[in-house]
Specification:
The complex is a heterodimer. By secondary structure, chain A is an all-alpha fold. Chain A is 46% helix and 3% strand. The N terminus of chain A is likely disordered. Chain B is 26% helix and 18% strand. Chain B is built from eleven helices and 16 strands. In chain B, helix 1 links the parallel strand 1 and strand 2. In chain B, helix 1 packs parallel to helix 11 and helix 4 packs across helix 11. Chain B starts with a strand and ends with a helix. Classes of the chains: A mainly alpha, B alpha/beta. The interface between A and B is large, with 51 and 57 residues.
């Protein structure tokens, strides 16, 4: 069983966000099952990010800031578990804190939240706004003038 | 070598008052210098800055001049010393606070101008509604106010709005029939927001709201008239912090001293000066200008500069509707509750309240993110996570009520005795305390929110822990009047003490009713500019 990764450890790694633009998975690539991580992440989140650049940045950050064993363990647990039971399985594996941190990073587009290193990686691309099917992220045009008066198209 | 700016008219502050005055005076062929302590803003860069901001606060898209900080939150710039925390937000920069205003362009009502006569509270303005009406019309035309003729929140009008009205949101339409049982009705707000292409700017496309920034410039802001004035020949000086005004023995303002962005000192020489820095920075500058002929500060023979500070208290409640209402679309607010803003039966007893139906869910910037975080904390993952974020977000509703604060002499802006800003100037010291009249209004707003959510069968209803003074509605501090011993400026916003000084902005306002002050600021700025221009013309004719 993988050990629990704490927020302090995540922050302690302290890699500059600027490192995203370098080799995406440079530090952990040798041992990380990248395909599984992608597949498991999308299953965990319930959706795939529409913007591949945003996805690249977040995957790079996660790969470079979490222990590879923990990430591989997370992938294994998520992939072998039915969706309604994922939370329970993660808790059983001691991975619930890491999983919730990762989910919150994707859904907020923000890393190191609540610390002095907090940084917004993708506000308009975050998965919370992407999940909202009837609107656009704040500051993004929502359609023709007056569209807000009616039920959104497709709803 | 000293930097000298020589001009006919020096206008200090490039917000809505300064920009409109600069435009009007430039139209008359006068040489105008429009100075602002802050920077000029690139809209695309501001949008990007907003995206990157972690706080998403009202001023987060905008850069400060290092020498002229602006408040980002309570007490990070000015200092509170009163019993009620003043959290008022305003911009120091070209375009001013209109960069992040709601766009509401309501007139004050006749009763708002005569509260002592009508309700026995506060004081009457020295101007009547009829005095203001032509200037309101002019301001509405300049700003491109969109509205529906019959919907005026109690401010009568004889001409239609310049632009067609802004449609109410779908959720306004959901709420409206359901609160009729409470004898409450909704009315759409007139807004300085394009409903059609107007003056080279596009119609509003929603943008899931434009507070704190409209990315497409469909919402009016003062940069419109800064640019118009510039095209007419006005000189714009950003990053010019005016540090004091100098009066001569005859009571004429001879010059203004400044510190520019390179920390170089300089002076502005002009025939006329207009100070247009909003209700905190106006008194600050006047109080900074103590001198041999102005021992209490410029324009302050009455001792009233800085007094009678007003704001509004704000209170929010949030709930989950049983049906989708589709928030997070359109302008931040498109309708408000009519009742409570000027009720004859209550206004003598308790503060007016203005309840708005907010189109921005439970939180304007982070609503869906916060919803996702709560779901993740409960262990919701997979498709259920995405689906529930969508479902819950579609049913979130917030009510916001603004509550009036009356003018009290003890509520004031002063100069902090020890704390200084990076330009070496004392920061504003704010002393605000709400009275029982306002507290009764707050209690009324809370009760209304509770009842509205109950009527709407909402669940998960939460309320702010307390009301806060966190709006950009800031007024008083250089009040208007006929009597120089009881006021700072006259009915044309001309200083009683200095014939060549005008003090523009909400600082002149006698009351700060629930209808927001921006259109009144604009109307009075145009009136003042017109008066100045006619005075100058008369003087020129006299000397010729």
């Amino acid at each position: 069983m993988s050990r629990k990764v704490t927020r302090r450890e995540l922050i302690g790694v302290g890699l500059a966000v600027a490192a995203y633009s370098g080799g995406a998975f440079a530090l952990n690539a040798k041992h990380l099952n990248v395909d599984d991580l992608h597949t498991a992440t999308y299953k965990l989140l319930g959706q795939r990010p529409a913007n591949p650049f945003f996805a690249h940045k977040i995957f790079s950050l996660i790969a470079n800031n979490y222990p590879v064993d923990s990430l591989n363990a997370l992938s294994t647990v998520v992939l072998k578990t039915a969706e309604p039971d994922i939370a329970k399985a993660l808790a059983h594996a001691g991975l619930e804190d890491m999983a919730s941190e990762i989910a919150n990073i994707w859904y907020s587009g923000t890393v190191f939240a609540g610390t002095d290193k907090e940084q917004v990686i993708g506000y308009i691309d975050n998965l919370a706004w992407q999940a909202v099917k009837f609107s656009t992220p704040q500051s993004v045009c929502g359609g023709h003038f007056g569209h807000w008066h009616k039920i959104p198209t497709g709803q | 070598m000293t930097n000298v700016i020589q001009t006919d008219i020096a206008i200090i502050g490039a917000g809505v008052a300064g920009a409109l005055a600069a435009y009007h005076l430039s139209q008359q062929g006068l040489k105008v210098a429009l100075l602002d302590a802050g920077l000029e803003t690139s809209r695309p860069e501001a949008v990007e800055r907003y995206h990157r901001s972690t706080s998403k606060g009202a001023n987060s898209p905008y850069m400060s001049n290092a020498l002229a900080p602006m408040p980002q939150s309570s007490d990070d710039y000015y200092k509170n010393v009163g019993t009620t925390a003043f959290n008022g937000l305003y911009m120091r920069g070209v375009g001013g606070t209109t960069w992040h205003w709601t766009g509401f362009a309501l007139r004050l009502r006749p009763d708002d101008l005569s509260m002592q006569t009508k309700f026995g509270v506060a004081e009457d303005w020295p101007l009547s509604y009829d005095d203001l009406a032509p200037w309101y019309e002019r301001a509405e035309s300049e700003m491109g106010v969109a509205g529906f003729m019959g919907e005026n929140y109690g401010a009568p009008r004889t001409k239609d709005y310049p632009l067609p009205g802004i449609p109410s949101s779908y959720l306004d339409g959901y709420v409206s029939p359901r609160i009729k049982s409470m004898q409450l009705s909704l009315s759409p707000f007139p807004q300085a927001r394009n409903s059609i292409a107007f003056q080279g700017r596009p119609p509003c496309c929603g943008n899931n709201n434009c507070v704190p920034i409209c990315p497409v410039h469909a919402k009016y802001d003062a940069t419109v008239h800064v640019e118009k004035a510039r095209r007419l020949g006005a000189s714009i000086y950003s990053s010019h912090v005016i540090t004091r005004l100098n009066s001569n023995a005859e009571g004429q303002i001879e010059s203004a001293e400044f510190l520019n962005g390179r920390k170089q000192k300089g002076i502005v020489k002009a025939q006329y000066f207009m100070v247009a820095c909003h209700a905190i920075e106006n008194p600050r500058l006047l109080l900074l200008s103590k001198g041999p002929y102005t021992p209490k500060g410029v324009a302050n023979s009455s001792g009233l500069v800085g007094t009678h500070l007003m704001s509004q208290m704000g209170f929010n409640s949030r709930g989950l509707m049983p049906d989708p209402i589709y928030p997070y679309r359109g302008p931040q607010q498109t309708s408000g509750v009519v009742e409570g803003r000027n009720d004859p039966g209550t206004r003598s007893q308790k503060a007016a309240i203005g309840t708005s139906v907010m189109n921005d869910g439970t939180h304007p910037f982070f609503g869906p993110q916060q919803t996702a975080a709560k779901l993740v904390a409960k262990g919701v993952y997979g498709k259920a996570l995405a689906e529930q974020v969508n479902d819950l977000s579609s049913r979130q509703l917030r009510f916001n009520s603004s509550i009036e604060i009356l003018p009290n002499k003890g509520n004031r802006v002063g100069l902090h005795p020890t704390l200084k800003d990076p330009a070496g100037l004392p920061v504003p010291e704010i002393n605000l305390a709400i009275d029982a009249y306002t507290q009764r209004g707050i209690d009324w707003a809370i009760e209304r929110h509770q009842q509205m959510f109950k009527t709407l069968n909402a669940t998960e209803v939460t309320h702010d822990s307390q009301a806060e003074s966190d709006t950009a509605i800031i007024a008083g501090t250089a009040r208007m009047g006929r009597d120089p011993s009881r006021s700072v400026v006259d009915l044309n916003l001309q200083s009683h003490d200095h014939q060549n000084l005008y003090i523009l902005g909400a600082s002149a306002h006698i009351t700060a009713p629930i209808n927001p002050p921006t259109l009144t600021i604009a109307a009075l700025a145009l009136k003042a500019a017109d008066h100045l221009q006619k005075s100058l013309a008369a003087k020129t004719r006299g000397s010729a």
